[in-house]
Amino acid sequence: ARVEARGTPSADQGSKNQWSSMFVFGDGFVDNGNLPKTDTWRQWSYPYGSYLNSRGSATPVPTGRLSNYWIQSDFIARILGLSEAPPSYRLTPHLSCDPSGMTFAFGGAGVYEVPDKKVPTLATQVNAFTRLLNAGVISKQQLQSSVALVSISGSDYMTGANVENAFLSSFDDIDSYIGNVTTEIAKNVGKLHRLGVRKVLVNNMHPIGCTPLRTSSNNYTTCNLLANYAATVHNINIEHLMGNKNNAHILDLYTAFTDIVNHAPGEGSERSNNFKRKLTPCCEASTELGYCGQVSPSGERLYDLCKNPDKKFYWDETYPTTAGWEAVTEALEEPLREFLDRDYVP
What we know:
Elements: E1 21-26, H1 72-80, E2 101-103, H2 122-134, H3 140-143, E3 146-151, H4 171-195, E4 199-203, H5 212-215, H6 225-242, E5 248-251, H7 253-261, E6 283-285, E7 303-305, H8 322-341
């Protein structure tokens, strides 16, 4: 369940409060192995996990992460002083919990069920955490030095979510629906606090209109206005619901992503210059209905792979590369450390 540390620096010094445990909830931005190893789930197959290590090995090591190596939760874990994200729930031995915590997130999850995904919702993940806590598998003592990370990144706003009008088809449709999604996120954050988690980190919505899934129709040249409007409404709601909570911190993915992939000329972050054709994925399907990692019955690749993923922000049609996540985390780090260093408010 653990990823070999390959050619990366040792874990950073954690905050002064010495957070030693992390519990991760949500979706594919932070899932490190909960989806089963089947043909249905591509993150267990090449080219996922195809990061080249410093020793020159080209052997891919798929770990269930939706990227070429590390994802958001790994970089957040290192800020806490851990070596990587805590082990996945599915790959953790029964009735046990690693001292570093546990990852409950599943790729494709949201606050509503998505029938074609068949993955647990955010509330179901929090309920699994609650059962382990009530059973004593996760101790109250462990919670006292714990941080939770909650990532809901857009599955509820895609075709297939089990609610009416889930697909974003017009500006008039989406405001009340987004309100329901963000209220559900806030409800689960409140539950984590009541259960004893000291601090909770909550992703706001990244600019979903800039993902290659949304920009492929215009040859990866411009972001989709309606989808980014939805992300903005989502983020206003999240700020309203949680912006004043003492022990919760909103991770501003929208700004961090935008400053890299969709900023005005002459603006943006310094790290933005590291990426080329920022809306284009490194791993791109050869056909309109294909996907990264798809192969024909004869074993022929049905996708194109860029030569240097470190120069691409997006790995596939939805998820960033490890280099992309590193750049985003750099933008989030200073306010995050300030939050972690503040004393817990009972």
